[in-house]
Amino acid sequence: MSDQETPDQENVVAFRRKTKEEKSEQRAARVAAPDPNANLNINSSESFAAGDSVMCRIVRYVPGGFNVIIIPQNLHGYLPSNSNHQAGDEISALYVKTEKDRILLSQRAAVDLPNKSTNQSPSGIHPGQNISAKILRAEEGGYEVLVSKLDALGYLPTNAQHNVGDLVLATYVSMEGNRMLLSERFNH
To answer: How far apart (Å, rounded) are the C-alpha atoms in residues 165 and 178?
Structure first.
């Protein structure tokens, strides 16, 4: 540092415009880079059946659950959960269904139901099935609901605003304790 420079000036880099060649190379690199959202190949997810166990990596928290990557297929999915996961955690989950270019998973079922032969689902209901539910009360991260068809309690993780008494269309994911875990994410 010279006597004329201040401490802040020693980290300053002179501005230089990029040449046309540098801009062209940068543009070509951007175009050649794979689109992270283009990884979902619906045909790849057709090899999954409802209840199949998959390994996934937590990408980030979103209201009501987590965006995940199913490994090793590198497919994007959504895991409704109020568990405390961190980005990068690898967890076991169950495949529920594919809809709107994303895969719906269930973590609770993967913990409670290690294989497809053990099934705690209510009679006549299967993962991925759409059902009607009535909002009973708000609770942290979503709502407690009454599944009309079965007169059974459920939990609907969502950041959508609903009123007590509203009827909502939801997708059955799995059992969470003595309540049905539902997802509203794939019904819009």
So the answer is: 21
Architecture of domain 130-187: Beta Barrel (2.40)
CA–CA separation, 42 and 131 (whole Å): 24
Question: What are the residue ranges of helices labelled H in the chain?
Answer: 20-32, 42-45, 107-112
Q: What is the pLDDT of residue 59?
A: 92
Domain 37-112 class in CATH: mainly beta
Alpha carbons 182 and 81: distance in angstroms, whole number: 10
What is the reported pLDDT for 172? 85
Angle at 172 between CA 167 and CA 176, to 5 degrees: 105
Overall average pLDDT of the 76-101 stretch: 83
| Total residue count of the chain as it appears in this document | 188
| pLDDT of residue 41 exceeding 50 | no
Q: Where in the chain is the domain with CATH 2.40.50.140?
A: 37-112, 130-187
Mean pLDDT within 89-110: 77
Quote the pLDDT of residue 6. 59
Interacting residues of 131 by C-beta distance below 8 A, sequence separation 6+: 125, 147, 148, 149, 169, 170, 171, 172, 182
Helices (H) and strands (E) in the chain, counts: 3, 10
Q: What is the mean pLDDT of the chain?
A: 75
Distance, in Å, from the CA atom of 128 to the CA atom of 144, rounded to the nearest integer, reads 19
